[in-house]
Amino acid sequence: MLRNNLKIAWRNLLQKKGFSFLNIAGLAIGMAASLLIGLWIYSELSFNQEFENYDDIAQVMQTQTFGGELSTAVNQPMQLAGALRNSFDDHFKHVITSSFTGDELLTYEETRITRSGNFMEPGITEMLSLQMIAGSRNALEDPTAILLSESTANALFPNADPMGKLIKIGTGMKAQVKGVYKDLPRNSDFGDLTFIAPWELLNTVANFEARLGWGNNWFQTYVQLQQGADITAVSELIRDVKYDNIKSSGDDSGPISKPVLHLHPMSKWHLYSRFENGVNVGGAIDRVWLFGIIGVFILLLACINFMNLSTAKSVKRAKEVGIRKTIGSGKNQLIFQFLSEAFLVVLLAFVISIVLVLAGLPFFNDLTDKTMAIPWGNPMFWFSCLLFMLFTGFIAGSYPAFYLSSFRPASVLKGTFGNAQGASGLRRVLVVFQFTISTVLIIGTITIFKQIEHAKNRPLGYNKEQLLYFPINTPEVRERFETIRDELLQSSSIEEVAASDVLISDTFISNSGFSWKGKDPGMSEEFNTLRATYGFGEMIDWELKDGRNFSREFKGDSLAFIVNESAVRYMGLENPIGEMVKWGDNGSYKIVGVVEDMITRSPYDQVRPTLFILHYGRFLSFVNIKIGGRGNTRQALAHIEKIFNKYDPESLFTYNFIDQEYARNFLNEERMGKLATFFALLAICISCLGIFGLSAFVAEQRTKEIGIRKVLGASVSGLIGLLSREFVVLVLVSCLIAIPTSYYYMNSWMDDFYYRTEISWWIFIAALVGALAITLLTVGYHAFRASYLNPVKSLRAE
Amino acid sequence: MMLLQLNNLFKWVQSGGQRIFLLKDINLDVEEGEFISIMGPSGSGKSTLLNVIGMLDNFDEGEYHFLGESVHNLKEKYRANLYKEYIGFVFQSYHLLDDLTVKENLEMPLLYKKFKASERKAMVADMLDRFNIVGKKDLFPVQLSGGQQQLVGIARALISNPKLLLADEPTGNLNSQQGEEIMDLFKQLNNEGVTIIQVTHSEKNAAYGSRIINLLDGRMI
Asked: What are the transmembrane regions (chain A) (predicted)?
């Protein structure tokens, strides 16, 4: 029976090639899109899962109170690990202090490469179950050892055995390669951990022990629980460890910020990383849901095409149903037949969709910044695909199956079978559904891009053009900055040079411990700070509102602040110039200038109160350079590189432009926008395939009517209008539903941004006009053809 | 032996608060081995009666007994089984499945009756032989003449050995020579024991039968 059904289905497909093409292509595109989304969701959900100790690994986070707001972060003091080990040893297998993963220059003889890696305590090798290619996991116990990932080892020692070789990390540290481990999974938070150096090495070289206390949250703390330990219980146990220690160490900032510790399990790092007011409120999981829903919708759109096209040609198949019933077919056998036809189509579509996925994966990987591949060898994959096909086949095939099989043979064979009013009603509903989804996606896409554009056009408050920087790698550069500046300025293409601790495009450092006249004693204040040398403000061309810039002519400027307008409001100062601000033990600073607010963090956020401090010392990390005039860049760069190599011969010369740094703020949203465009286009494409097919059937069904109308004198344009009207009305109805829906959702999306665009009316008009234009183009083809048909022909055909 | 019996059978449609009768008080007894022709003008209810007898259509009042079973009390499923077992249908416009070859069209009823593949093969071969259409077995309906199509239609109706063959103007679309051949075939089948009820306009064709029923406005006259 099944074989017979499939044979018939196959012949049916071959016979109506155009129809089959629409059906299969639509389904294949829909399936490919949902497969891609499925792969992406799988990759998101399986993030970090390749680690054996996935269930037992956690990161210690702390929630502190700043300015009445709770802020949760991963950074911890170096003393925490020891305290946890001492007091709660029976709960933890490993407690590990680690620096933040960053780029370091690795040097072996003449080979110099920059790789990202980390300084970590030895237990990390067991925690991450490193697979050693050479050496052993406990090699990291030796504070002069370093472990390299396979790819780093290959890059640094292309033709030699890395084991035992002495390499240089950065400029100040030396370590011996004592192990090579297999690259860690890309789909994990440790994917960029391409070397692991001993934490002790960094600690000794940087003399942290002597310098840093419980108040310096410079590091991260990872733990691995004893097997079977209850993470919530342990998390509760360690709650006050930092608070108690910071209080007994005599640091008075502790009681103000009230740090509360908790364990954040590895299973939540990736998808549940956002904290608001100390509470975990999700994170990337929102996107997983969003795209999951989009995937299901796109698949539904494709299934709807299948249903619509099947019911549209039901008039043709009604006769077949009638005959089959008169020669003894039961209803169930017909349902089975139509379902098997649907499954055949789905199977074909699936094969095509796999090809589409293979072709689209590189592009999609690029878009999502992932390295996804089809897991051919995974039985779960095949099982899911089977389920996926059954699901799609059932959704797509069930309606036609149940609908067609319920025809009464006597009436269909007699020819009194009406044009299936019920079915065309449902078809209308389904088309409206399709276009509602498509229009919502169009509006969403436009809004995302409008928001990005809006933020891009936000006045910066400084001039980011022709501004570049290079990092300061050695104390020599820092100490001899003035000399270096003078030598740089010798080139006529360089306008100004100033050093700073953070970049103006991202002033991520914040400080507290300030007091001033009139400050509310209960206020636990926090300011962003930027330390820089003379000339920094003039170089970036900030707008001075009041007072003056730092100047070599004023000797007291090392104890002076320039503040932004937000800071003035934040501090509640009437006349800021000349006010004194006490900063902990650092002394009293005088406010000498007020500058206009600048976008120094995310362009979507509110400008934070910021202090600018004159500084020539150990915090300086970047040399900023303003190039004078366009076209001088190459000349300037050559000069800069020469000076750089003169004063820092061991490092690689790297530089970047501030405007490029700034552009990174838009990466996430732009990616989101591109994905939304991608899926919106797919949705429109599928919906259009659907109404293209439908309009063909409508035109065919009404051939006789059109013939008669023409004989009676109807004009071609009138007929085209007649044939298109129904679809236009449907699309208008869709827009009516889509506009409030998308308004609601886009409003809640934009709630995340402080600086946001308006959802203006023209977006809706544009979506409406766009949807209508697309509909008319799609439907118009068949309407046009049908209307131009010679009536003699169409009437004779009856 | 009694094959079927209709007692006071009515069928109507509701139109604007009025009942329009399609069949009115039909009483009919059919013995096995009869060859009955139903005649009457267009719209007199001939086809409706045939469809009711063939269980393709419902009726609103009255009784219908088929081989001792009360059809009016039977559930859809049992009725379908009864139908599948004992009744074959032949149409004016043949109603072959366009997508299937002659052989496959013949095989279709057997599939629905769940015959084994080997049995199906034998029965189809037998039928092709009997109707002398072996050479056409791999052709599609559109490749056959009208008479040949109707032959296939009859062969398909007969393949599962029905007791009752219902034919709705079987020669309506055929030329006179083809029509005669079909009627001869019916006569021969009837002689072999198949009960036949046909709807026809032609007195000549009706004459092949043993009894004529005349319908007018849904009523037997």
From this structure: 21-42, 288-309, 334-361, 381-404, 425-449, 675-699, 711-739, 759-784
Q: What ipTM describes this predicted complex?
A: 0.74
* Reduced DSSP (H G I as helix, E B as strand, rest coil) percent helix, strand, coil of chain A, to 5: 55, 20, 30
CA of A317, closest CA in chain B: separation in Å? Answer: 10
Helix (H, G, I), strand (E, B) or coil at A625: strand
pLDDT for A798? 39
Q: What angle do CA A287, A291, A297 make, to 5 degrees?
A: 150
Q: What is the mean pLDDT of chain B?
A: 89
The length of chain A, given as a count of residues: 798
DSSP H/E element including A114: strand A111-120
CA distance A438 to A770: 11
Give the separation between CA A274 and CA A291, rounded to whole angstroms.
19
> Is A790 exposed, middle or buried (CB count within 10 Å of its CB: 0-12, 13-18, 19+)?
exposed
In this structure, the number of other CB atoms found within 10 A of the CB of residue A741 comes to: 15
Q: State phi, psi for B89 to the nearest 5 degrees.
A: -120, 140
CA A481 to chain centre: 39
Shortest CA distance to A256 belongs to which of A247, A265, A268? A247
Q: How far apart are CA A243 and CA A214, in angstroms?
A: 9
The Cβ of residue A511 has, within 10 Å, a number of other Cβ atoms equal to 15
Nearest beta carbon to residue A409 from set B47, B56, B109: B56
Report residues of chain A scoring pLDDT below 50: 797-798
Query: In terms of CA atoms, which chain B residue is nearest residue A413?
Result: B95
The reported pLDDT for the residue numbered A781 is 87
- Give the span between the Cα atoms of A418 and A406, in whole angstroms: 14
Given a contact cutoff of 8 angstroms between Cβ atoms, the answer to whether A511 and A666 are in contact is no
Mark A601-636 as b/e (b = at least 16 C-beta within 10 Å). bebbeebbbbbbbbbbeebbbbbbbbbeeeebeeeb
| Contact between A117 and A155 (Cβ < 8 Å) | no
Residues of B in contact with A405 (CB under 8 A): none
**Cβ-based contacts of B108 with chain A (< 8 Å):** 324, 327
DSSP string covering A53-78: TTTTEEEEEEEEEETTEEEEE--B-T
- 3-class DSSP assignment, residue A504: coil
Q: Rounded to a whole number, what is the largest CA-CA distance in chain B?
A: 56
CATH superfamily of B34-58+75-220: P-loop containing nucleotide triphosphate hydrolases (3.40.50.300)
Question: What residue ranges do the domains of chain A occupy?
Answer: 1-47+279-359+374-418, 57-269, 422-458+663-798, 474-650
Report CB contact under 8 Å: A324, B160.
no
Q: How far apart are CA A459 and CA B85, in angstroms?
A: 85
Digit-coded pLDDT (tens) for A93-102? 999 999 998 8
CB contact under 8 A, A413 and B95: yes
What stretch of H or E contains A456?
helix A421-456
pLDDT attached to residue A409: 76
Domain extents for chain B? 34-58+75-220
